[in-house]
Amino acid sequence: MQYVMLIHQGTSPTPQRPDEWATLSEDEQQQVYADYGAVNATPGVTPGLGLQLPETATTVRVRDGRTLTTDGPFVETKEALGGYFVFEADDLDAAIALAARVPAARLGGAVEIRPVLAW
Predict the structure, then answer these.
(1) What predicted TM-score, i.e. pTM, was given to this entire model?
(2) Torsions phi, psi of 92, nearest 5?
(3) 44 vs 76: CA distance, rounded Å
(4) Which domains are delineated in the chain?
(5) Buried b / exposed e across 76-112, counting CB within 10 Å, b at 16+?
(6) pLDDT by residue (tens digit) across 62-88?
(7) CA-CA distance, 5 to 19, in Å (whole number)?
(8) Among 9, 61, 98, 111, fewest CB within 10 Å belongs to which?
């Protein structure tokens, strides 16, 4: 089964937010990089991409045939998607175990696991 692992940064410090990132020691920062590297090196993982900050988003809706755009997301910043990757696993338990290793999950964010829909 393939699972998409959606990383919600929440309040976790990221290098994109230097003031928050600076709250981590140099060792903690290096551990975050190492942990993401280890997750990406896990068998069955197809590394995804990180996303720019939520305030760079444009939301598109079509209403009555008209294309409407809004700057930024409609979700709270703490709920915004920060990145993703795909994991081929035998079961949900394996996906949960890997999600628990994602630094954002322990630093104030969360990882949402979604099975890929097979058409």
Answers:
(1) 0.84
(2) -65, -35
(3) 31
(4) 2-50+70-115 (3.30.70.1060)
(5) eeeebbbbbbebebeeeebbeebbeebbbbebebbbe
(6) 999 999 998 876 655 566 788 999 999
(7) 27
(8) 61
